[in-house]
Amino acid sequence: MKQSRHTRRAFNFAAVASVAVLASVAGISGLQAQQKTIKLGITLPLTGADADDAAKIKNGFQIAIDEANAKGGVAGYKIETVVFDSATATAGQYDPAQAATNTKKLVSDPAVVANLGPQMSGEGKAMTPILSEADLATITPSSTNPDITNPAMAGTFKPKGKAIYFRTVTTDAFQGPNMANFFAQNLKVKSVYVLDDSGAYGVGIADSFQKQAEKDGIKVLGRDQLNPKEADYTTILTKIKGLKPDALYYGGVAQAGVKLAKQAYDIIPNMIKGGGDGIQGGSFLKGGGFPAVEGWYSTNAGPHLTEDPAAAAFVKTYQDKYKDVPSDYSITAYDGAEVVLDAIKRVADSGKEVNRANVRDAMQTSNLKTLQGAVSFDENGDIKDRTVSVFQYKHDAKYPDDDLTHQNPYIGVAPQS
Amino acid sequence: MESWEILLQQVINGVSLGAMYALLALGFTMVYGIIELINFAHFNIFMVGSFIAMWVMQLMGFTGQSHVLYGLPLTAMLVFVLCVTMVATGVLGALIERFGLRALRGVSGTAPMITTIGLSYILFNVILLGAGADTKNYSNPMPNIRWEFGDAVLHLRELILWGVSLVLMLALHYFVRRTKMGKAMQATAQDQEAARMVGVDVDRVVIITFFIGSALAGAAGVIFGLYYNYTNFGIGYTAGLRAFTAAVLGGIGNIPGAMLGGVLIGLIESLGGQYLAVRWTDVIIFSILVLVLVFRPTGLLGRASPTKS
Fold it and tell me: Where are the domains of chain B?
């Protein structure tokens, strides 16, 4: 009796399930008859300490995709996105382990032909081995650690050999050193203390800054590492105050950066302070706030774009759509998405199948006019342009406190070595 | 800066950190002393306290450094915020005990401790989802008053931090030593069964212990926010772990031990950072902890409990 009731229930379930499956299959094929769909992944740390900067990047991707879909798609394909958050609550910021988990999910979906992101090099280092195995290319608008595309480390980051990590910004092989040149030549800095936030990006950019600073004749009085989850940096700042360097350089992202800025404002208010693109953006500006961030220098691993006339239409679209100001990396994100969409179009136009391998090959041979100018890549996936821009946080009471463009004005291009 | 100025400044930094750790360590140690449970929910009660105080101040119209108060109004405001927060986190702690842990009392093994870890994660995620993941700019009504000794600086906020910690610790000490409830606590800590036999309401003692411990964590949360000028959902972990270490270093279950442990950890952190390197902070702290426990397994001031075999 008991047995048969179970059997009946199982049968009922099977019947319902199969009807549901049939219905959904019919639904999908009905849709496909109207328009073919392909997917792009988006992987960013959408929560946590860098959420604000990640949102600015995601919006940049989204505008490019929405524009393409509004024009009827790319070569007849409607573009859908699969979005993953690579931040975790325990890390409080991007989490490499989460980035790897997301990437595994991403590569298991055969409809995904390319990925947009990540924001952080720490994510990128965890993602690339998986992406390489799956032949799935990604394009990052902001991750700058040079190891990932360094041919000497190809065994780790692209075990299958082909470039799969493309960038619409340059790397810290230029961002750190050019800022060191700016410190030496423009700010006449003679001695510096260097800190990093123990992340992949932070350690890398601090190393490359330090190396060039020494070459430029700046005396490096010390180097230490912050734990980004620690609340108290007064100890290290007191130590730095005692050493009296001309300047402090911080390689790292917002989680430690915000606290460092607040406490540095109190302990070493008059020292020259600077960092990389990890503190260039809304997360640092809003989390630190004025007066703490006043005077901090920051860089971008690309040309300054939000005030470029070529990007004016984009900036307006962005402001209307998201009621916020874009960052330069919103524009490199838009450019990155454009590169991928262009690659898909070229693959489709050439009559080849739109799959991961073909899209990757097409991205490699990109030569596309974008908002930042012509984008093309070397054989490692790095962009050929190597501009690094310098900014300084300066309070302007005429504009809202979180208006990045006006509260963090552009100073100029950092000197190349 | 001369080397004595650096030393003085690092001692000021270290004592400030230590005062906060000590307040937080008291909650661990009190609960452990009474029911031999390590309450990991304590980490995030501290975090919730910093949020409650921020919301109270925002409701009163203080955001960022929008209004700066002096003298009596400042004192009144801080006392009010502290009281509201301490009552709120105290009630939170008592609720956790009543509905989360009482049913598990007397269950041997790690089940109650694991439950506190779970409760801790619930608090953590409630704040994460409710308040968002970004770092909050804290309300700060304190003027930037500073005294300089050579190049070393002492701020008003450090004095307030020390003062609040000292007053709360002395009050706790008096409460435990002198009041009837305090004596009931000591009795329960020594032997629950015997205390029950002489008429101590053990359930009431335990819930009051949770209330007081959590109220102190709330006070530490307020102080944290005012001192560092920020809060977010993740602050409980690092500070909580250090405070727990302080409680073990001083001798878990021992109230003066928690105070001593807290200040020691604070000083180790600042002096270790100055004379070695900040990146080694955790290595130094935990090495010292291991050394102390090897030679004095009960901690610096702890004594082997007479009744526990």
Answer: 22-235
Taking each helix axis as running N to C, give the angle between helix B180-190 and helix B3-35, from 0 to 180 degrees, rounded to the nearest 10: 70
Paired tokens of B278: 């900040």
Which residues from A are below 8 Å from B when comparing CB atoms? Answer: 47-49, 51-52, 87, 89-90, 92, 198, 224-227, 229-236, 238-239, 241-242, 244, 254-255, 258-259, 262-263, 266-267, 283, 286-287, 289
| Ranges assigned E (strand) in A328-386 | 368-370, 373-375
Distance from CA of A53 to the nearest CA of B (A): 11
pLDDT in tens, A240-258: 999 999 999 999 999 999 9
Interface contact B1, partner A, CB < 8 A = yes
- Other beta carbons within 10 angstroms of residue A76's beta carbon come to 11
Partner-chain residue, chosen from A198, A238, A289, that has the shortest CB–CB distance to B6: A238
Q: What is the ipTM, given to two decimal places?
A: 0.85
pLDDT at position A174 over 60: yes
B208-228 b/e (C-beta count within 10 Å ≥ 16 → b)? bbbbbbbbbbbbbbbbbbbbb
* CATH fit for domain A35-171+308-375, picks 3.30.565.10, 2.30.40.10, 3.40.50.2300, 1.10.10.10: 3.40.50.2300
Amino acid at B77: M
- Smallest CA-to-CA distance from A46 within A99, A3, A1 is with A99
Classified by CATH at the fold level, domain A173-300+389-413 comes out as Rossmann fold (3.40.50)
pTM for the predicted model, two decimal places: 0.86
Q: Is the pLDDT of residue A275 over 60?
A: yes
CATH 3.40.50.2300 domain range(s) in chain A: 35-171+308-375, 173-300+389-413
